[in-house]
Design brief:
heterodimer, A: about 400 residues, mainly beta, Porin, 1 helix, globular, B: mainly alpha
């Protein structure tokens, strides 16, 4: 046997094997299940409650367990979320000044389901989903439709998402029986002699657009924007307003609001295992609010198993034109609020956390564990503490296509 | 709307400039970009705090998708 015969024979064999491997690859698909158990704990204190007209306790505790599941089977992905925020609020207790009223301990329950399909030929993902949440003073039903596309070179992504929320702000769903028929809008106890609002529905439409670009081996830039429109009852019906002439009323806001937000994000993987995630955001709406945010999250890779997560955030806001402090509003004004969330403020957030990867192999069950603490300070004296813990479990395997 | 379009001019110009500077990465050059911490979407432990911020402040962040409706009245 001469050398040429051996060479040709070897090449023919390698093509045969190559073809066989390609065929084998298409017979299998990846099946991945990721489960996250999350607990959020939130403590807040301040002295500018909108329920008591801009003065009064804002003490609040939220206990927030949540369950998230992501399942991917080949090109199909499913996301399911179920959670509750159990709220102990001193301020909503002052709606009727009854210390043991139903408003003292409230629960916000929420759930979401999303389906996504990835189309390999066009590198496009389409998704749609529904969500719902319920609390004693509202029920919300949401729908969303999403699209994202990665460029041929995998250097760029484009995304768009439309979200629609339909809210009903009547009280009484969680009174005694779960999902009871909603009864009425709730007003402060001394102001129930008249109907202050004839609308009880709120519809929100959000259009988000995103664009990301990889720049070199260590940098990624993203530009995001949101256009939002809300219609219906935008005021909170149990927020008191105290006028100059010592009379009282219920918060009044326009029935339509348009919001625009733009954000630029820069993620950078520096030498020494430092990852800097910086963002700058701008916001404006037709209530007259202007917002500006600077945000930094840093991930410091101490080892392959441990990551330290410090963060800082600064936010400055020019308040809504309808805001005034307690006793400052004129009774002849059309719209008025003393809600300090809509006032001229600036806020600081300082955060620290860590993430732990207990094993190097990703197909083990406990994928990672993370802990985060945030301290939040607002210029009007409101202080808040947030603790979040997350256990992330993952199972990944290759299964034969049926 | 004009203000919104004007505010987009700088970031879009920046992006096209960055794009012209970038070269296509090969799969083995993506170890930093593909790191989970480089994701543009925040982790769920950060999302709860972002949700709090949307209630305690008047603004909404452009890249944080709203999970569910709510009164945010507490």
């Amino acid at each position: 046997m001469n050398k040429r015969t051996v060479l040709v024979g070897s090449l023919a064999f390698s093509f045969l094997v190559g073809k066989a491997q390609e065929h084998k690859k298409s017979e299998f698909k990846v099946k991945e299940t990721e489960v996250e158990l999350l607990y959020n704990h939130y403590l807040q204190n301040g002295n500018n409650s909108a329920v008591t007209g801009g003065e009064g306790t804002e003490q609040l505790t939220v206990y927030g367990p949540s369950f998230n599941m992501d399942k991917t089977i080949g090109k199909n992905s499913y996301h399911f979320q179920l959670g509750a925020d159990i709220i102990s609020s001193a301020s909503t207790d002052n709606i009727d000044y009854v210390q043991s009223s139903a408003s003292r301990l409230d629960t916000r329950s929420y759930s979401a389901l999303t389906y996504s399909r990835y189309m390999e030929n066009t590198k496009t993902t389409l998704s749609f989903g529904v969500s719902g949440s319920i609390e004693s003073d509202y029920a919300s039903f949401g729908k969303h439709l999403g699209w994202s596309k990665t460029s041929k070179s995998d250097m760029r992504t484009y995304s768009a998402e439309l979200q629609i929320f339909n809210d009903d702000l009547r009280w009484g769903r969680l009174d005694g029986v779960f999902f009871a028929e909603p009864q009425f809008l709730i007003y402060p106890v001394e102001l129930r002699n008249q109907e202050w609002h004839d609308e009880y529905k709120r519809d929100s439409y959000n259009l988000s657009l995103g664009f990301t670009q990889i720049v070199g081996q260590r940098n990624m830039i993203g530009i995001f924007s949101i256009l939002s429109m809300q219609r219906g009852l935008l005021a909170t019906t149990f927020h008191r307003v105290f006028f100059k002439n010592n009379t009282r009323g219920v918060e009044q806001l326009p029935n339509e609001r348009h919001k625009i937000g733009v954000s630029v994000r820069w993620n950078s993987f520096s030498k020494g295992g430092f990852i800097f995630k910086n963002s700058i955001r701008g916001y404006m709406d037709d209530f007259g609010i202007l917002g500006f945010t600077l945000d930094n999250e840093t991930a410091i890779k101490l080892s392959p198993k441990w990551t330290l997560l410090p963060s800082t955030r600064f936010y400055a806001q020019k308040g809504a034109k309808f805001f005034a402090e307690k006793g400052e509003h004129d009774v002849n004004e059309r719209y008025y609020t003393s809600d300090y969330d809509l006032s001229t403020i600036n806020t600081w957030t300082f955060g620290l956390g860590w993430k732990h990867w207990p094993t190097k192999r990703k197909n083990k069950r406990l994928h990672n564990f993370s802990f985060r603490y945030f301290y939040y300070s607002r210029s009007n004296g409101l202080r808040a503490h947030t603790i979040s813990t997350s256990f992330n479990l993952m199972k990944k395997r290759r299964v034969k296509k049926t | 709307m004009n203000q919104f379009l004007n505010s987009l001019v700088l970031p879009v110009s920046l992006l096209f400039f960055m794009e012209s500077c970038s070269t296509i990465l090969k799969p083995y050059e993506r170890q930093y970009i593909n790191d989970s911490e480089m994701s543009m979407t925040g982790s769920s432990t950060v999302k709860f705090h972002q949700y709090v911020c949307t209630i305690r402040e008047g603004a909404v962040a452009a890249e944080d998708k709203k999970g569910s409706g709510g009164c945010g009245c507490n």
